[in-house]
Amino acid sequence: MMNEQEALEIVNEAIFQKEGRKLKDIEELIFIGAFQNLTYGKIAENNDYDEQHIKNKGADFWKLLSEALGEKVSKNNFLGALERRQDCSAKLPLSLSSNNSLFQELTTEINVPKKPDFVGREEAFAHLNTLITGRGAKVIGIYGKGGIGKTTLAREYLQVQRIKILELNVGMDTEYITSVKSWVKRQINQQFKQKAKKKFIDMLEQLKYLLQNEEEKVVILIDNLETALDEKGKFKQEHRDYIELITRVLNHPTVNAITLITCREEINEAKLSFVESYPLPELSELAWREFFSIFEININTLALSEIHKAYGGNALVMKVITHPIETYYGGSLEDYWLDNKQFLLKGQIKDLIASQFDRLFEHDRHAYNLLCRLGIYPYQEIPRVQKIGLFCLLWDVKESENMQVIESLQRRYLIEFEAGKYWLHPVIRAESLTRLDALDNTLLLMKEEIDKLLVRDEKFQHFLEWLREVTLLDSDFTPLDFRAFYLCLEYVYSFGIFAQDEFLELANFFGIPSMEEIGEVFFNFITSTDVSKIEEEMKVVYEIHEYLLYDLLIDKRLYDILKLGRCSSFDPKNYLASEIDYLTGDGQYIDLELKQALQTLKSELPDPNQKEELFDAWWKTNSKNWAEKLRKVMIEYCNIGHDWQFNRYDYLLLEEYYHANVLLLYCLYYCDYHLTDSVRNKIKDELFLPIAEIEKRKE
Fold this sequence. Notes:
Rossmann fold, elongated, 8 strands, 5-stranded parallel sheet, 3-stranded antiparallel sheet, mainly alpha
């Protein structure tokens, strides 16, 4: 049994094939009334018509329908004729079978006009075309941050296609969002010259029918949809009519229309999973060059690359700065940049960015706080931030909700991300810093979050306590210098997180780029200073400094020997003994008891000059025991070489701890905002310390 809509589609198809038109309003009223078994009197009463007028029009309609169906029908028997036509018809519904199909008529080869609004969007045009004509997309979401050019792209694309546009401008003010019901009613009444039904659900069916049988191609442009969404990317309860419009009408397979949606954030509705997502990329530097050339602005300057990078290729910014460059700087981009590089946020640009922050503040306070806090990172020094760098800024969010907050920023295109790393565009960062009041407090709270990473297991705190003890030396080195060195030493040799020759960002803050370069640091120190010119009272300080540097070098070399001692084999066979000789030779700064212990271990090694197979046989049997003896010597005399009993998960956590502290150090050393010396020194003094020690210092 066919339903009302199916019957209406068959009638419209038949009338169109005979008359080349769709049903008139009054004909549709008569047909629907008949389908509902209403009398002419009831049809007239429901629609404010004279009963006789409806009877007269009814007679004309049934005569027309009889001719269209090829058999005589009346108000009482038309349903059987429609069912027979449905059964025997091999044709598709009108909207899909006619030569007016939207997909057939779309221009497949786009020649983008050479005008400013089109600059750099050839690829975007082609991508939209592929989605529509290649994949048959019915609804496309064009996503991107404010000012990137979403609406401009949509309108210019439709202009090229010469498509009839029905525009639904959602609005930028949450208090004045366009009502879907009023919009649908207005389209039916004004665009299609029909009388809209009273119930919303009936209006949707009416609009669907009209779009199914529209002779012209139609595109619905829904602009600025983000205003109707909540903090999770879902439609607010009062605006869920948008879902009904999109699912019931715009995505219906027989509707001869496509829909383009522009939105600053991705829609997160399961019912709308069919929406094809197109994140609009920023304009390239080449596009900026082409745009400025149109306005005869000098582009032969390095300033162009700098300003393009600073504003992230934003299309609106490109257009906004054109006027002052032309008017006040005689077309000199370089002069404009010299005067304005310190003031990224001004005028329309500031208003645009501020509006995005304001909306985020209103809808998702946690995401807003994170966005503001992300401004603390000096991106000129660290272009990308690991995920742990975001987690450490979420001290007021449950751990289970961390990713939800980050994804909120991703969905709104307010944070850049690639391959698990994140960053802010300079204009976003500039606004972040203006809204972050307590910079000192932000870094202190970040430090607390980093410390909490290693609170969960006592063995981590035991490791940090060892780190504190092993660096309790009286020198002109700070305790932090030593803690950083020994932390990295363990990360390389005990944890295997980094290689010996790998660049260590954390150690580099304290003058040691890698463990392999500690010898070079020592050599540079003793060769760059003329001891004869040092005042007598300072020679003691120099000698202590030299001794301590060598002490670090000894510890590093002991780990090298231990690593070699754990190898299954090595060549030449005297290599291990030679390393011990070098470490214990005359003139070296080495403790006498440690020297004797190492020489004893050397004496236990087999003769390297004997037959190779005999040496290897001894080594295979005894190397493990020999290496364990060496490790105990290292623990006894140097307090290094401990077995921390960490597992694979622990190493991952330790790696996060390392990277988080690197980010904190970048903030301390390279921040371009005011940070008080007291806070800077407090953070440095408490880096890499166990919680118990940190709490003790608060007392």
